[in-house]
Design a protein that fits this description.
There is one protein chain. It contains 5 helices and 16 strands. With 316 residues, the chain is of the alpha+beta class. The protein has a 16-stranded mixed β-sheet that branches. Strand 2 and strand 3 form a beta hairpin. The chain is globular, with a radius of gyration of 24 Å. The N terminus is likely disordered.
């Protein structure tokens, strides 16, 4: 009888241990699946909550119409309050709408093609708390002497809502819905906020909205492979991270190099693809940008003529 009791107690103990271990594994699995919802390191908040923007200027070699064009690029990272439903900046006007803090990226490119100039800008609004798990909104505008285009992507509950306006017949006023996928435009802010949120391995990704404009493509997801590697930078002779995306059925690769230490300064990027060429010849070419200067400043308070010296400091 005593042996039976002992055996029973032993079995019960084993069952309890197995349940506990299984439950622990389930908890770990759940935590891993939601790792991007964890609080960001204090150092990240400290850097971005300093009431200043991070502004970086780049020398740009932009592929357009089968030739390399010399130009400039600028990245402005800054935090701001954001209304999550109407998806616009909160300006202090009284409202019952929910507000969230976002990291905003304004990404500009300037270059000329022959006689006429291009000016492009993408804005990305990424929540600090990674919920939702994609930016609230992305907008891209492009202006040249032919005309201008505008694309807006809003992250809604079930899908991405995309509005497109263009002087091109093919992309005239359109409103479409996309299944959610990683957005190339959101990678920049992921690097700045949380490297653990970068997509690695086989993924589905929507190319950058600026590239879609260059290639005259409608927005949609493509299969790709993504990796994060450590490499030796030729100019600084220091170790840097390189995040690379290879599109499997788009004949395009895209990579960003950035510093290992916070705030992961963006050192440059490359895009290799077959550009839109009207002479029928197909040539693999590379757009490339290299960092010139980074400053941290409250630029919105620097709008007098005396502040123009900051543009010279940035090489603009």
């Amino acid at each position: 009888m005593k042996k039976a009791i002992v055996i029973s107690l032993t079995l019960i103990s084993l069952i309890i241990i197995l349940v506990f271990v299984t439950a622990s594994k389930l908890v770990l699995k759940t935590e891993n699946n939601h790792s991007n919802n964890k609080a960001l390191p204090k150092s990240v908040y400290t850097y971005w909550k300093n009431n200043k923007a991070e502004i970086s200027s780049y020398d740009l070699k932009q592929v357009r119409y089968g030739e390399i064009r010399e130009g400039k690029a600028v990245m402005i990272f800054v935090t701001e309050p954001f209304l999550t439903n109407s998806q616009v900046k909160y300006d202090g006007i009284k409202t019952d709408e929910t507000r969230a803090e976002v990291l905003k990226l304004n990404f500009e490119r300037y270059f000329t093609t022959g006689i006429y100039p291009y000016s492009m800008m993408t804005s990305v609004f990424t929540p600090f708390n990674a919920n939702p798990d994609h930016p609230y909104k992305i907008t891209t505008s492009s202006q040249d002497w032919c005309g201008h285009t505008f694309l807006q992507l809003n992250n809604r509950e079930n899908n991405f809502e995309v509005s497109s306006y263009s002087y091109f017949q093919q992309f005239g006023d359109q409103n479409i819905k996309l299944d959610k996928a990683i957005l190339e435009d959101e990678i920049w802010n992921k690097i700045k906020l949380d490297l653990n949120s970068l997509p690695i391995g086989e993924i589905e990704i929507i190319p950058s909205t600026q590239y879609l404009r260059f290639a005259h493509l409608e927005p949609k997801a493509f299969n790709a492979k993504a990796e994060l590697t450590s490499q030796l930078d030729d100019e600084t002779n220091s170790e840097v991270y390189v995040f690379r995306v290879e599109y499997l059925n788009l004949e395009r690769t895209f990579e960003i190099s950035f510093e290992k230490e916070l705030p992961h300064k963006i050192l440059g990027w490359k895009e290799t693809y077959y550009p839109l060429i009207f002479d029928g010849e197909k040539r693999l070419m590379t757009t490339e940008a290299k960092l010139k200067k980074t400053i941290n400043i409250d630029y919105w308070n620097k709008n007098s003529n005396a502040d123009s010296g900051y543009r010279k400091e940035l090489g603009l």
